[in-house]
Design a protein that fits this description.
Four copies of one chain form a homotetramer. Chain A is an alpha/beta fold. Helix content of chain A is 30%, strand content 21%. Chain A folds into three domains: 254 residues, Metallo-beta-lactamase, Chain A, CATH 3.60.15; 96 residues, Oxidized Rhodanese, domain 1, CATH 3.40.250; 93 residues, Oxidized Rhodanese, domain 1, CATH 3.40.250.10. In chain A, strand 1 and strand 2 form a beta hairpin. In chain A, helix 4 packs across helix 7.
Chain lengths: 469, 469, 469, 469
């Protein structure tokens, strides 16, 4: 089992990732709207987000649960506990799985059990976590806004922030009973709360990130009360005024938060790649020719970022298909700006080069081709009976070429592909090595075994090898 | 007169800014679609773009002329020379001013005269530039794709790239005649061409950025011909195949290029600021309280970027109005992401803090308020008969406040503004100095003379000054 | 109490900060050599590092304890437990306080008690942490390389990596006994280990960042043994080969690691600022004139980063004194490069502008001066009987100035300071407002009450106020 | 010929690069101390800086000529014109070639002729530039601080700034005569001056970057005078006070400016690489295994930046040799910080990966090895009679390996290299593909023909290929 905490300082808000390394699955608990952080963290650990949940309808931030589940195609688990007026109204529409007290689900070998802990809100769940691979008892609890380090979630927000009159005192009674129930659980349990010091969802949260149930039983003021009425009085007293936006949050999170407005160019997922290849998207791999030759997603086109990127984009890219790029995010604006200079505005997304590893880890293959020096190739070409393809212009070809080479200029390659022999390995070259990898990328994608000549005809000539006019 | 060259390496394309420092006006010649660079360069020089033009309908990149003129409200000058089929079809719609051979316009003291120089294209203009403040003869010529350093613009693109049959030979004749006409102009003229080495719009462009007419007359091969037919033959021979996207560019640039798709959050202009204040926009100045107090655009709200930004955004910002920010671009993503966490998605743009200087340079005033220490203020408040406003919560106020202070919590300030005396200077304070600048920003905008207490009531107490409960 | 964990992924190594908010003190446990992270984290929380310790002599990374203690003037606590050959040989030289089993020290209200837990190494300590402000029993233990999540620290490194023959089996026995001793401690204790999954200091560390003692008693394999010999056999079996550099680390960390080689320009501390002002350093505050006027460290010189920075640096800075800057780190290279252009190479360090808050939080005062518009000042100057100082060149002064103004050009100000009247407030102006804040910064530092005229004589003239020639 | 201008805004200072593309040589004129910019610009254009010069002893910035020449091993050309007291005193020591009026040197096909143009300073040279490849007459002149756009260099600085009494009037006379001499040169010459608007080296410089001699003859006030005495009077009148640091600059630039203090980690040159390989340096190539396999500098060690970088650095790098890295600058701090964590402080420099192209362009070869999938290799290994090397630990080997494989763990490879057969191609593998490229890099560097197995033994097993225990 793997655990990671995500802490949003300004909201003093904690979300969590629970992963099972054995199966590669991961659960996100209480995500906020900055959902990229969860996806990236999972990817970095080699995990796939397969489940998303939240402890309750949050009042202090827009939930990211719905969007995260939609984006990752993960299962969305939502509370079905508590009174009817506090059910998630978007649950059915989002295909959520509803949880009540005692329900559980698995994330690989990790068992997640829902405990209904009303008080802060009527539908509030806590999640008991058991790493069944190594233990038969739970390790800890995600307590959301129920138990914090040294405090408990205030039960008056519904009434004071969202204006639902008459909920604050019943909430306080619920909270007392939820606390009593937790007294029965073992002391060694870790407590993973939904907020840290500074949150407006409690009064006096500690600045230690997490706690244990045993320690809280001893030193959390709320566990100290044995008289319910006295507790109710104490927990409602002296709570500060809640910020007015809390009312908005409650409404939004109950009825279904909209996704965040996207950047023009968003980072795409492995699923996008899997679907994209089959469909409309044109996939451009902007890595170096060497990196591309050494391994690439089949069906992509190699246009290395650099001084000739725009030239070949102008020659080869259509104006009527959505474009995507495989490129480091740091180079993305430059490439998009270059494409815009010639009106290629249909760039809809990109992948970091790390997508190639994710691609392989899902059992997909990479394509590759060899890059060789002129001298290497002269020997091989004869030995292996290679066909030779010259992708330069007719004028360049006329001025000198490798004996026996077929000439199809790069920009005609797609339309004249049938002229190329299919039954032999294919040596591809251009003048300096800038065009031949692009040609190799086109032909490897269509089934040829390609060997590309690294330094082009210039290299061939400077090695003193035979030419023909 | 001020001259700046903008060089786009991948296109080997040059645009130019001509400015008149005396009047603050600027002209952009041959802008490409990356128009922010021209706006920023003008701003940096303290100039306003008041005119935009281009030498011809470009074939190798999307023109930025139309969008740049629209965005800056500059006059757009377009060629009206040549045959009817090569008129700009969007000229009327864009309110362009049409130019024919011999027409001129002024950019401050700089005179721009159009010379019809067909050849590369039928409508091609060159622009003769005279700095009338210091000279009565021209300094140089923007030659676009007519004369390059060591070469001339190829006259075969219309036919070879755009498929307009039968234009290439007449074009070559035109080009010859345009060259003869330039032989009459003085040798000392600077030649500012539209392309450098590597462009596909010519054959053999030199790698020196600009030239002089005298030098070109001596060493440019095209000036060497005195036989028109021989020239026509020479200029059409051996031109390389043009990239296929050139046909697209011709069509787009003639019929009116669309603006570039915008980033989600675009940098706004001074005009946006001038209009925005009157209208719907909520303007948030995210600079430090000190910077804000020292000078700010009247009517803005100060929410300093930092650890309390999100808290006060949640308290004070509405969900139904477009928001704009004054903030360094480098901090923008952070603030937008924070606002998104609580669903404030309506951020539509931003200004760099340098906008304050542009604002003042247009004759607008800044508002300001004083920030003073507790000890300073105690003396002044008595001397100057100040009213005192405490913007903390009632609970904080009840626990101790400055004698005689009126209590209106910050989050009620907008609705209870009438309770504040109008005829006296106003001392504003909170607990630690985080809330009072925000209050000061609200009240200064509505006409109060505000003095804000820097370290808040905490500072007042630690200075041992009198308190009241 | 405040707790923060620092995790170094590549080493799978954890260090910790324990802070007491009530007293502003902080302890760092097991720092590695990247010590800036601890200083910055403490600063961000408003804490001062007053104590540094480590659980044992590390084998897998260079310790930062010695350097961190030296840089922050914190107390350094080191183990004195175990046999003589495993004492820290640099302890006396570094003025360290030595700890044995049962010793304790306070970090504000937080009690840190050393428990000798040999096994991984002979001198290994664990630290029991009690938050005495809220509890009378401990909250958790820093277990270093003794107990990990699901594993224990391997006792064979001394022998296998550092070549100290015959230590591995005794170490394993020690480890068994240390574990038995921990069985007596309560289940609810948090376990804060020194390593996470992937470290070469253990065999099978879990990927959950921390644990509880109760959970480890149940599920950590090492607690499962009740036969000492069987445990010794088990813990020594199947340990992987340690990396060869571990031997180096042991030696270095025992004999005293050298500080990291510094960047040319290092970030300075509050102490550097306190000492620097008294001494040789010239302190340049490169913030905007507005920010500077609103509050600055007395004795600093204001040279705002921007287009005139280099000009005034050339006029005002000496070539024979070390220079320091107050400036955002992101602008630092630019300023240093500009200064180098004119040979001012003696820049030795910088502070982020946040140093001003640290300065104040230590009870130091900021200086300030007013910046006012021409119209404001005309009224005030008369009312308050201000002296008027014109810091422009004699030529500018001769061409027109404010009636009654004294002229001392900025570059002569330091040598002619005695000519300025001391008994009146002083209005300072230049032409456009670029030079007067620099003058104001020089004079405020020497005791004048300065009011600076924001838009300079240009503003005075354009407001139509009286001039004299 | 290729020309590039480098403009330093704060100093309003222009330097120039003149290149000959045919021979790959470049000259830098009037470099300032930020010399990296010139080296990078040359590299980008595929040129080598082979000559450095300056027009005169600058007064407003530290010259970079000496350091640039030393760093690039270029020839340094300095003025030997004018009186003895204005000779460069470091010329002999720096091995400079001295120039007098009429001397010339070649930069490839470009001819640079020195013209003595005293006035601003006694030793001032201008440089007449002729592109002999395309022309037999000059194209333009580097005029330094002699002729600016619309102004001339002030002749009073020596006296007013450097305190050399009695030089200002003779200087003005010299200047007059230098101007008369230039009247003889043709109008079409480009004028490339050493300063733009805003410099303190002249009075009224225009904001157009360059001019033509014909235009200056017509409109530059200084050319308007035909009476020498009247000119002398005019040029000395109304010059503003020079900044005091000018005196320092004169002294420094005459006696030999020191190099700029270096960053801790400086970017190394191609020469450093050429020398470094032969010597003490350990060269680590931190690019990806794919990039490395596809082509690398022989003798380098591949440690890909990423999560295992530190692990293998700890296993393989010595503590007693200087280390250098081939890595993008953006990733450099991260790698250096990681190495420092384990005390590897001896990192002395780095190269950007682009160095590989520079390396090849100088005729050096790259080494390479193949990376293949398990299935490919099974076939090949048999066919080609490959030896097989397993670089995992003995424990891993014992648990299963490729039949016939020799086992030498990666960390013993350097000491046990003789055990590996030399007469066969060598298949190298590890467990997952992280260690085998490092092994391949070590072995390829020592002459083996290596084929590396991409996905390691894990890939071999999952392809169902035969194993042995």
């Amino acid at each position: 089992m793997l655990l990671r905490r995500f802490y949003q300082e300004e909201l003093a808000q904690a979300g969590y990732l629970v992963g099972c390394q054995a199966t590669g699955e991961a659960l996100i608990v209480d995500p906020n709207r900055d959902i990229d952080q969860y996806i990236q963290a999972a990817q970095k650990e080699g995990l796939r987000i397969t489940a998303v949940t939240e402890t309750h309808i949050h009042a202090d931030f827009v939930s990211g649960a719905r969007e995260l589940a939609a984006r990752t195609a993960a299962k969305l688990y939502l509370s079905d506990a508590g009174p009817a007026e506090w059910k998630y109204s978007y649950a059915a529409e989002a295909g959520a799985i509803l949880l009540r007290d005692g329900d559980h689900f698995m994330v690989g070998n990790v068992r997640i059990e829902a405990i209904h802990t009303p008080g802060h809100t009527p539908e509030h769940l806590s999640f008991l976590v058991t790493d069944t691979a190594g233990a038969d008892r739970p390790m800890g609890v995600f307590t959301g806004d129920f138990i914090f380090v040294g405090d408990v979630g205030r039960p008056d927000l519904l009434e004071r922030a969202a204006g639902v009159a008459g909920t604050m005192e019943p909430g306080a009674h619920d909270l007392y009973r939820s606390l009593q129930r937790f007294k029965e659980l073992p002391d060694y349990l870790q407590i993973w709360p939904g907020h840290g010091a500074g949150s407006a969802c409690g009064r006096a949260l500690g600045a230690v990130p997490q706690s244990t149930l045993g320690y809280e039983k001893l030193f959390n003021w709320a566990f100290g009360y044995t008289d319910e009425q006295a507790f109710v009085h104490a927990v409602l007293e002296g709570q500060p005024e809640p910020p007015p936006y809390f009312a908005q949050m409650k409404r939004i999170n109950k009825h279904g938060p909209a996704p965040r407005p996207q950047e023009l160019l968003r980072q795409l997922s492995l699923q996008d790649l899997e679907h994209g290849r089959a469909g409309e998207l044109l996939l451009i791999d902007a890595r170096s020719a060497d990196g591309y030759a050494a391994g690439h997603i089949p069906g992509t086109l190699n246009l290395p970022a650099g001084s000739t990127f725009l030239t070949w984009a102008g020659w080869l890219l259509p104006y009527d298909r959505p474009l995507t790029l495989i490129v480091e995010q740091s180079r993305l604006p430059e490439l998009r700006d270059l494409l815009a200079l010639i009106g290629l505005d249909q760039v809809v997304g990109y992948w970091e080069p790390a997508i190639l590893e994710a691609w392989q880890s899902q059992g997909h293959k990479l394509a590759r081709f060899d890059r060789r020096s002129a001298r290497d190739l002269q020997t091989q070409a004869a030995e292996r009976g290679m066909a030779i393809l010259d992708v330069r212009t007719p004028a360049e070809y006329a001025a000198g070429h490798i004996p026996g080479a077929l000439n199809i200029p790069l920009n005609q390659l797609q339309s004249r592909v049938r002229e190329i022999p299919r039954d032999q390995p294919l040596l591809v070259y251009c003048q300096s090595g800038a065009r031949s990898p692009i040609a190799a990328s086109l032909l490897t994608g269509q089934g040829w075994e390609v060997v590309e000549m690294r330094a082009g005809f210039a290299g061939w000539q400077s090695a003193g090898l035979p030419c023909e006019r």
